[in-house]
Amino acid sequence: MNETTNTNETINADVSPKLASASSQNPNDSDGDAVTITIDMHADTVQRMIDENVDINTRLASGHLDAVRMRAGKLDAQFFAVWVHPAYYGASGNRAIERADKQIAAVRALAERNPETWMLATSTADVRAAKSAGKLAALLGLEGGYALDEKIENVKRYYDLGVRYLSPTWSVSLAWAGSSGDAAGTGRGLNEFGREVIREANRLGMMIDVSHVSDATFADIIATSTKPVIATHSNARAIANVGRNLTDDMIRQIAQTGGVVGVVFYPAFIEPGWEEKKAKVDVEIAALVKAAREQAPKDAASQRLAAEAVREREYAKRLPAVSIARLVEHIDHIVRLVGINHVGIGSDFDGIQATPQNLASVADFPNLVAELKQHGYTADDIRKISGDNMLRVMEATEAN
């Protein structure tokens, strides 16, 4: 075990035999807003900022996230996922690096142009300072390691630009890390370069995110990392059996590192069987998606946006709704396995084409809090889920 590892007895020490009923809460615990810092570990909104030229400092008519709705939902800090579409992959990583750099520049510019609203945050101290100043904290995570271009010095390059977590893969495997999203990733773990990436991230104070990685890569990350490991947007595979979710053993191993699982809002990772229903709908709407692509400009971003707009519309009409209660069942499951200290939030907003009922945007976060209360979580529990757990992991990762 590494220096951050706890024993199983320690992990389970904070698990109540049964979650208390909401009626048993101390009435004085009902409102912890003055000290609660809510952090969403994963949203793809920066893609909209550069591809649709939207200004998220204003109230947008579409999408899931902007400053106005963050205020309404009492969301204090957002990790913006810097994601490179596979269309930018090439013989070298130059195009991927350019695409990642453009996204980072957009988030940094958001804070620079709107200092009354936003603050770029690269540490726990920054997040707390933003909260104290009444500002929204903007943080950066790199989703998929292609922009590293298999050069170890680029880990520090992105750290210096403000990136504070690295997800080795997205849904496409790399030579040095397998993904849960493609056949190439089946059985593929980290190679020596991949292990070097983990060690360098540990050295710098950059968190390692296991959402999207293959089971073999997950095991190699756990074996290599000397700092807490996180899953920024994953749920429990025991409830929804999809590769993106985590097995009970994986959840335990994350907790043993001192890490946190951020529950994701996409119905396919919440509701058993939803993914299979979606696959049938995808066949039914294939012609509509194709027509939308044909009518859109030919660049990769416009093609993606056109296809996703059709999917979002048709999924809403054709697929069954998923409740917030079902999402909280995943939180319950994680808490019963490893305790309240190892669960957080990772919405994947603006990267998903469907959302749970009454959780359509960041403005609806209070509905999630209300559901947690219905499941018996106290104000202290909710503070931990909302952000305190992730702040603890960030702080542990920052320490050398």
Summarize this structure briefly.
Helix content is 43%, strand content 10%.
Q: What report would you give on this structure?
A:
There is one protein chain. This protein is an alpha/beta fold and 400 residues long. The protein folds into two domains: 8-267 and 322-398, TIM Barrel, CATH 3.20.20.140; 272-319, no CATH class. Helix content is 43%, strand content 10%. It has 15 helices and nine strands. Strands 1, 2, 3, 4, 5, 6, 7, 8 and 9 form a nine-stranded parallel beta sheet that branches. The longest helix is centred in the first third of the chain and has 20 residues, at 94-113. The radius of gyration is 20 Å and the shape is globular. Residues 1-34 have low confidence and may be disordered.
Which CATH class of the largest domain applies here? Alpha Beta
Number of domains: 2
- How many E-type strands? 9
Query: How many H/I helices?
Result: 15
Write the CATH architecture name of the largest domain.
Alpha-Beta Barrel
Which percent band covers the strand fraction? 5-15%
CATH topology of the largest domain: TIM Barrel
Question: SS-based structural class?
Answer: alpha/beta
Low-confidence stretches: 1-34
CATH H-level superfamily of the largest domain: Metal-dependent hydrolases
Helix content: 40-55%
Order of helices and strands: HEHHEHEHEHEHEHEHEHHHHEHH
**What shape does the CA trace take?**
globular
Radius of gyration: 20 Å
For the residues shown, what is the average pLDDT?
Answer: 91
Please summarize the sheet with the most strands: 9 strands, parallel
Q: Give the terminus-to-terminus CA distance.
A: 18 Å
